[in-house]
Every structure is written in C-alpha cells, then in structure tokens.
Amino acid sequence: MARRALKLASLTAAASGIYVYGNKFLDPNDFGVVRVGRAIATTAVITYDYLTSLRSVPYGTEEYEFLKSQIKELFMSFEDIPLGAASLAQVHKAVLQDGRTVAVKIQHPKVQAQSSKDILLMEVLLLVVKQIFPDFEFMWLVEEAKKNLPLELDFLNEGRNAEKVAYMLKNFDFLKVPRIYWELSTRRVLLMEFMEGGQVNDRAYMERNGINVNEISRNLGKLYSEMIFVNGFVHCDPHPGNVLVKKCPTSGKAHIILLDHGLYQVLSESFRMDYCRLWQALIKADMKRVQKYSRRLGAGDLYPLFACMLTARSWESVNRGIDQSPVSASEDVEIRSNAAAYLPQITQLLNNVPRQMLLLLKTNDLLRGIESALHTRASASSFLNMSRCCIRAVSTYQRSRSHSLYRRAQISLTEALNLWQINLYELFLWLKGSQLGNWVIALLRRMHHSTY
C-alpha cells in the first residue's frame, strides 16, 4: 500500500510541479547533462526544451484531486508546493503517519523514458556542430551523459551513495547526511530525514545566526579533500542548494548538511595518486613535478594551462606558489580574459584528460564559487588541509605496496613528521594572526632590544 501511495504521490506532485515549474522553479543548470557541460564551457547546442517530458495529469482536474487524496494513506500532511524543483525531480516536505518529518524526492514522470531520447538528440546536435566546426571537441559530453544520467535517475543508487559517504566521513562530527528510509523508497521516490538550514554561500545568514564563516569554509575544504584525496569517492554537485549550514541549538556547533547524492565520481587508485602528487607539487611550487604529473594526467604540453585551470590562478602565481598570496582583482580579470583567448586549447585539454577529471574540474569550480561568496578564497588553511590529506593518502598507498616491516615503519615515521611540520606551521600562522601572537612577538622584540 505504501509503495502504491508513493507512486500515486509521484504523479500528483509532478502534476502540481508543472503548474509552478514554468513560473519560477525551473533551473536548467540542474539538469545532469547541462551541469557537466556548463561547469567547463558554455555551449549553445543543448537547447532542447526539457519541459516537454513533464506532461502528466492536468492540474486541478478530477483525476488530479483523486490522486492527491491517496497521499493521505501514507502521509499525515504533504506540502503541495515543492521545497525545490529541478528538471529531473522535485522535493516536498511531508509528515508520516507516525509523526516523522521527511523530505520526499519525487522523479518527474516520463523522465526515464525521455532521457535516452534527449541524449540521442544531444549526440546528433553535437555531430552536426562537429561537421560544421571540425575543431569542436565536446563529444565527451555525450559519453558523460550516457554514464551519469542513468545513475542520477536511480534514487536507490542515490540512497546508497548517501549512506556510503556518511560512513566514510563519520569522523567529521560537523557533517550531517540525511538518513534514508529504505522501506518507503523506490527507484523514482526517495524518502529521507528532513533537514533544513541556510545555503552554504549565504554569508548574511551565517552572520545572523552566529556561524563562523571561516570555520564553515575550512570544514568544507576538509570534507572535499578527504573525499578526493583519501577516499576517492567524491560528491560532484556541491552547488549551494545541495550544501546547507545550520547551528546546532544544543551544542552551538555549526553543521554542514550534504544533500543530493545522485552524482558521485569514483577515482581509480592510480589517478588519485597522480592527482595527490600533482597538488603537492602545486602547493610547493615544484615545477618539475607539476609538469611530470600533469603529463601523466593527460595534459601533455598544455600542462601550464592545466595547472592554471586546477588552481584558478595565473601561471605567474603558480610559479611563485599559490599559497604565497591571495587572488587579486587584477588576477581574476586576467584569468577570465585568458579563458576566452585559450578556448581551443582548453577544449583540446578537456578532450585529452581522463574522464574522471571532468567532474573534479566542475566540483573545484563550484567550491571556488562558494569560497568567493564567503570571501575566504584560497586561504592558507585550505592548502594545509589539502596537504594533510595528500600526505596521508600517499603514505597509505606506499604502505599497501610495501612488504617490508621496516619500510612500512619508515613510511609511517615520515608521514608523522610531515604532518607535524604542517601542524607547527599552522600554529605559527594562528599565532601570527592572533592577539596572543602579537603579544608574544612584541615581548620577544623587547627582550631582544634589552640585550643590547
């Protein structure tokens, strides 16, 4: 009965969704295919009107009202107006008969059937553009769509991803992932624990609620560094609607709530190790290793451009050290103008790098957007957290490849020393920026002058 009611609810909610969808809730950027493409380059060929796949029961008809009444079998209350809606699904707040408040994610009808047609249409359009412009190299968009869209359409897969990442990152007490109610979920309907908060890029919300903006930015960096470098299982859609923040009323701690687990990237071990070592080289400004690992990741002779794309910094800043100075307004302008000037090379690069890199580039771009909104972009703490994760990941890999007890002990000792050095440097930065640090520096200066 519950599953039947959920299927009826999916039709009803979809019908109401069409009514409000065309007015204010549709965001084309939320369509999986477009999200992958728009994160890297703007293309005018994806113009199909996705709303044509959403025709269902007309709003306000007798059939609509009948279906709506069936929801009462499962829910004590069900809010018709969705909390959020995108091209694949929409989310409603509801209360179950046992009193639990839940979020109900409902897939729009006909999306499953229509998705293959959309991908085919997209492939045809891209092939036509390719014939007209031979240098056009965006056929990988179709490959990514064929791989990722079926996963996003399977809500049971999304539920499994949510539980997997919650288990992997259980040591982060600031992270909250909604619990999945499996007994009430299907491939097209997902019931989860209801969680609410402000969007992660809403600095004003954080200030009103006494949430430390720098702490949120730092913890978000920790979260994604752990996913990318240590676990190789990466949530690839951290746009502000999927990452919420809330201050716990009892403990006073700020929580990060991670939503929408449909799109994850699983990194192979070899790719993850090369990516770790590349970032270590970028942070240390070791240009020889930057070139080496960029080439191993498919960048070839375009490794300077690749380094700039990864860091969103100019080549001059990369050579100087990306942790040495914050991004200036003039550097931002330079990066944007160069992005347009080097579009053919960027296209070539994206066509050559491993497919795993594409979603990581998109993820990096979204995270930088959040940092920019919070005015915490490229802080020293973010690079320190990345360094820690890279050191731990490489050490774990080296130990797994070694059969010598002495060698494993040596690797562990080196790891501990490197992490200790980072902790010491972080303490130095904290003292340098704190009142206590200023007091200690002033005292040392007075002691120094008194000896002469």
Strand content: 5-15%
Overall 3D form: globular
The SSE string, one letter per element, is HHHEEEEHHHEEEHHEEEEHHHHHHHHHH
Biggest sheet features: 5 strands, antiparallel
Q: What is the helix content?
A: 55-70%
- What would you report as the Rg, rounded to the nearest angstrom? 25 Å
Ends apart, CA distance between termini:
88 Å
The count of β-strands is 11
Provide the residue-averaged pLDDT.
Answer: 79
User: In terms of structural class, how would the helical and strand content be classed?
Assistant: alpha+beta
Number of helices: 18
Low-confidence stretches: 1-55
How would you describe what is shown here?
With 452 residues, the chain is an alpha+beta fold. It contains 18 helices and eleven strands. The strands form three sheets. Strands 1, 2, 3, 4 and 6 form a five-stranded antiparallel β-sheet that branches. A hairpin with a 3-residue loop joins strand 2 and strand 3. The longest helix is centred in the last third of the chain and has 29 residues, at 405-433. The radius of gyration is 25 Å and the shape is globular. Residues 1-55 have low confidence and may be disordered.
